[in-house]
Amino acid sequence: MGTYVARRLLLLPLVAFGVTVLIFALLQFLSPAQRAALFVTNPNQLAQIDGIIRKYGLDKPAHVQYWIWLKELARGDLGWSQTARMPTSAAIGTFFPATLELTIYIFIPVVLIGLWLGTKAAVHKDRFVDHFSRFVAISLRGLPSFVWGLVVLMVFYGWLAWFPPGRLSLEADLYVKSPAFRPYTHLLTLDALLNGQVWVFLDALRHIVGPAMTLVLVEMALLVRVTRSSMLEVLRQDYVRTARAKGLAEPVVINRHARRNALIPVVTLSSLLFVGLLGGVVLAETIFNYPGIGKWGAEAAVQLDIPGVTGFGMFVAMLTVLGNLAADILYASIDPRIRLQ
Amino acid sequence: MNFHRRLLMLLVFTLVVALAGFNGVAQGQAVKNPDTLIVQSFGDPESLDPAWEYDTTSSAIGTWNIYETLVFFSGARTDLYEPMLATAVPSVANGGVSSDGKTYTFKIRQGVKFSDGTPLTAEDVKYSLMRIMLMDRDGGPSWLLLAPILGFDTQTTRDDKGALIPDIYDRTNRAIQVNGDTVAITLKDPYSPFLSILATWSVVHSKKFVVANGGWDGSKATLASFNNPAKPDVATLFDKSAGTGPFKLERWDRGTKTVTLARNDNYWRAPAKLRRVIYQTVEEFGPRRLALQNGDADILGGTDRSDQPAVTGIPGVRIVDDLAQLINSPALFMTMKIDPEGNSDVGSGKLDGNGIPPDFFSDIHVRRAFAYLLDRQAYIDQAFRGKGRLGNGPIPFGLLGYAPRGKWYEPSKDKAVAEFKEAWGGQVWDKGFKFTLSFNSGNIGRQTGAQMVKEAAEALNPKFKIDTRGITWSTYLGLYTKSKLPMFFIGWGADYPDPDNFVVPFMHSTGSFAKAQGYKNPEADRLIEQAARETDPKKREQLYFRLQELAYQDVPTIYLIYRAGFVVMRSWVKGWYHNPMFNEGWEYAYRFSKGQ
Fold it and tell me: What PANTHER family has UniProt attached to this entry (chain A) (predicted)?
């Protein structure tokens, strides 16, 4: 187990190298003036475009630029992200906690609802719960998240004014930025509780509900469907029949004997979902003006912010490797038959 | 149509109706956050350092809210100034401007303090001007002071290879002289718009503060390490403030893209009524609109004309429309020397009905034909809800030199046909053409214009083919700088309120648009240079009128519209006013307050 994990961790630098080389190779397709667009946002700057290209070395071949970037990296500098208006490493450090917090608030409900509804649907196959869950899952999934985002925003902010966009209200934001508040984890809801400020906790929660609700609606569908089909398969197995024949109570049969064995595909899917959410939920973050990493990553990509995109790409690639590793370890704990050698 | 599509359409429809029609809880609402002004718009500032910033958002935050200039625009005027950090507006009559028009002398106001409590001195003024001129980051505003003070051959502090010009420090240091509490600036040549530049770009900051925070000490020895910093945060005032203005920077939270200004209690006049001014970047219009409706935003910036109906009729919301703006955008440009290499925008590259030759637009008849073709009033009505005046040259309405009776081409199919028949010895009409008309994607106004040109041309002759193409800004820029775009939209907004700022890019052979188009008319160059030196407004105006005639005769560019702006705000915002140099609507929040 230990060596397995170590081996997978050794992959990390390799993945990072691959991703960054790929990004720099893609640069070959862009002209220097195109890349200068990041710094020339206004026609009034057009006269100075040659200087900008020279200053940022945009006319140098991609491998030279990559070498410069590597040298900076060796000094622990991921470069300046013009879209974030701060160094790339600082940008990751700033935007990631917000996304992590949002992800947790999405992931837990998605998994709980997904497992519960999926199990119910499988157990009561072709009954009302099954049809209902299928209908709900497909119709929620059928609409893109930005449509749900707008609906949620419209109803819960526009009409009811319950769940405003952003991350904190004015007063809470001023308080959080004051010296009285200690940011232990940069997860605002957690920090608020650690600081003993329940009102800040509630305020942060109020702001997270909108994007979280949107994504729970959209993301739970897949988990419901996968849990259901996986459960159906397991429920047909002989050992389930045996368990029932032994006279075990139905909840024990379902929850202990059947579901545990149905979890493998669910874990796979969940780990992908988790990493996917961490990598950024661009649309929800944009609609709810939530300062997460996905919104920044997307903006950096669109505006050709090369240090930003490279750093973001590298970070997400590493997250993916780590997420898969976590899933592998989880498999082993769920199913002892899986050997990690 | 399947069920999902129908459901989707139904929901989107409901959403649109809801967004347009529902006006929420705003009615009779009490003033929210009564001592804080909240502005929401889509762009975030690049840097808050006055020597670095060259974007409208950064200027709106800093120039007159955190900092102040030597002189300032009087009310809504752009040609009349009032003293700000200087005690008087210099003129030849009061001796502030020398008789040769080269030296401007300012007596610096006494008793003014920076927000950290230290007093303002004449030395700070000199230092600030030199710092703005000599930091000179690529793509920055330094040229706006460098060129008029050191002469128009000095647009930058570096040579073509990027090396610092050796005597640049001495020349700057000589041009700005401190004598007691006066500062005298001597220009290389008389430049009549100079005061209008100072009203926007003489942003005074504290030398003591900058030096204490590790910034440039103002000496020649350290200039090389200060000039053209690699990264914006190297500039000391990137996220700090050291100004004399009514507000000071409390925090720039780049994570949430929020800038918080707090009242400057050391202000030299009565302190501002607002305790805080908060600028929030919200990229999407939908959330911005809801924030306005709920009273969580007081002023909305960056509202497109096409979004105007969505903010109209919300209780408690005021729209101020028909605001004068010094913007000439968009205009339709034709490139006379197109780079044909690997360029699919010119089709076959020949006049064979499947393309155009690279010098297609060098024939005046082609350009005139397009000028006759486009019904510009219809365009203004369609793309700008009729808000704007017909353009007729580089100088927009509201500036000296705008020609109210300047001629332009009336839309006429017959005349367009006649011109096309004359173009390229009749070949254009007989064989037809095919090229791409580009706009930067996301710009609805330009997209509409492209579509109208296409439809008009293709309706004239079935052999005429125009593809319209929206491309991202970066690609647009890349193609533009290489003269790859046969026909395209772009525009210009005033750096300072003077015609010279417009005629150079549009019509001088070295100007950034004219150069890319390959337009060169020696008479235009001569008129532009002569008008810049001319101090008599009447004579200047005549020179610009003549230039407008050239714009009409040569028609390298089809001028479309001088736009009128509008600002959306809660009606509880009091003390608001407009100056054509304001782009965002809250550039000078000093007298703003909130109340029913």
Answer: DIPEPTIDE TRANSPORT SYSTEM PERMEASE PROTEIN DPPB-RELATED (PTHR43163)
